[in-house]
Every structure is written in structure tokens, then in C-alpha cells.
Amino acid sequence: MLDEGGPSKSTLATISGVGFMAIVLFFYFFMWEPSYSEVYPTMFILIILSALTVVFYLLDDISFMYHFALTREDPEDFKSKVKKASNFMAGLMGMTLVGLNIIVYTQFGDKVSIRILIITLLTLFSVFLLVYSMFMGED
């Protein structure tokens, strides 16, 4: 997936680190209020689900999964099953993310909901770049 003229893996990892730092700073400056303390558990569940969604979505493209598939009797069938299952799990987790964001919106209003949505999107972006830069194989 990496093109010859595209960014290197170290550049992607650096951008991912900046994204993780942005999550921490955003949380510290915009979510560290006593009135938001009751939404913290939901926010941490959203962060974990965001990370897992990206990992499951990229599971069929990760290089060690490809090498594991080669050890099987029918590697192409195994890879197609892994792709279907991982995309299904990513879809379920994505729907859960949307549902939890809607619940936060209805319970806490748009001020908190938009902030949590920003944290969720930053997590998705940062984890994608981290997984992509660390585990994707060179073709």
C-alpha cells in the first residue's frame, strides 16, 4: 500500500505520535472538568473500541497475518475468511462507536458529544497510522 513516492514508515509513525499527543492535550485542556467526570468511562470505552476497530479492519493486510496464512493448507481460503471476519468485526465495532456517540449526544448534549467525537476520530486516525507504519509488509 505504500507507494515509492509516498511517506516513509517513520514519517507515518511520527504523525501517529503527534495524533496521540493531540488526544492527551485535547483531553487535558477540554475534558478535564468536574462536570465531565461522569462521561469518562464512556469516553475510554470509545477510545478502546476505536483502536480495536482499526486493528480489525487492517487485520487481513497486516504482514504477520499473511505469513501465518502461508502455513495453512489453503492460504487463499484462509485469507478470505480472515478478511470477511475482520471486516465484519470492524463493522460491528464501528456501529457501536456511532451508537455510543449518539447516546452521549442524547445524555450530555452537543458540547460534550462533539469533544468526544473529536477524541474518537483522533484515535481512529492515530491508531490507523501506527498499525500501518509498524505492521504493514513491504510488497
List how many beta strands DSSP finds: 0
Derived from helix and strand composition plus strand pairing, the structural class reads: mainly alpha
Number of helices: 5
Mean pLDDT: 84
Helix content: over 70%
Principal-axis shape: flat
Rg over CA atoms:
17 Å
Strand content: under 5%
Give the quaternary arrangement of the chains: single chain
**SSE pattern:** HHHHH
Number of domains: 1
**Parts with pLDDT < 50 across at least 5 consecutive residues:** none
Give the biggest beta sheet.
Answer: none
* Distance, first to last CA: 8 Å
Please summarize what this structure is:
The protein is built from five helices and no strands. With 139 residues, the protein is mostly helical.
Please provide a written account of the structure.
Helix 2 (40-58) packs parallel to helix 5, helix 3 (63-70) packs antiparallel against helix 4 (75-108) and helix 4 runs antiparallel to helix 5 (110-135). The chain has one domain (9-135). The model has no long low-confidence stretch (mean pLDDT 84). The protein has 139 residues and is mainly alpha-helical. It is flat, with a radius of gyration of 17 Å. The protein has helices at 9-31, 40-58, 63-70, 75-108, 110-135. It contains 5 helices and no strands.
Helices and strands in order:
Blueprint (H helix, E strand, L loop, with lengths): L8 H23 L8 H19 L4 H8 L4 H34 L1 H26 L4
Helix pairs in contact: 1-5, 2-4, 2-5, 3-4, 4-5
